[in-house]
Amino acid sequence: MGAVEQMELFPSATADEIKYVRQQLKKYPEMRRTITVLSQKPALNDIEQKVLAKYKRKTEALETAIQCILDDEIREILHYRFILHHERWAAVSKWSRFTDRSLDRKVRDGVKAIAGTLKLTQDID
């Protein structure tokens, strides 16, 4: 008799998906700036319209996924680091009650939660 494989109700994000989300979070400020610049242009060509739509979708998905993080502290750290675009050392200074390794662990947990939300909503490319 063969082994029974249990499926997850909400599949966990893979290592590659978590890595992808981390890259998207690092790219977030660039995407927001591009959205701002393109939104101010009076006329957009087809490529600019596609980029604008794609970046709006991606930034909104990231912002929503961050808001879905259950742990208030982790949500605040991820918002500070990636949405407000503060460097790691600034976050370590702000949350000085944590060691830098503890803060890094919270960021990893947050990125994993974001990846899980994006996978659930099918917002991972």
Commentary on this structure:
The protein is an all-alpha fold and 125 residues long. It contains 5 helices and no strands. It is globular and about 50 Å long. It starts with 14 loop residues before the first helix and ends in a 5-residue tail after the last helix.
How is the topology of this model organized?
Blueprint: H1 15-40, H2 46-67, H3 72-83, H4 88-94, H5 100-120
Helix pairs in contact: 1-2, 1-5, 2-5, 3-5
Largest sheet: none
Report the β-strand fraction as a percent range.
under 5%
Mean of pLDDT = 92
Unreliable runs: none
Q: What's the helix-strand series?
A: HHHHH
Shape: globular
- Count of beta strands: 0
Radius of gyration: 17 Å
Distance between the termini: 38 Å
Structural class: mainly alpha
The helix tally amounts to 5
Task: Give the fraction of residues assigned to helices.
Answer: over 70%
Which features would summarize this protein structure in a list?
125 residues, mainly alpha
Summed up, what is this model?
Helices cover 70% and strands 0% of the residues. The chain has 125 residues and is mainly α.
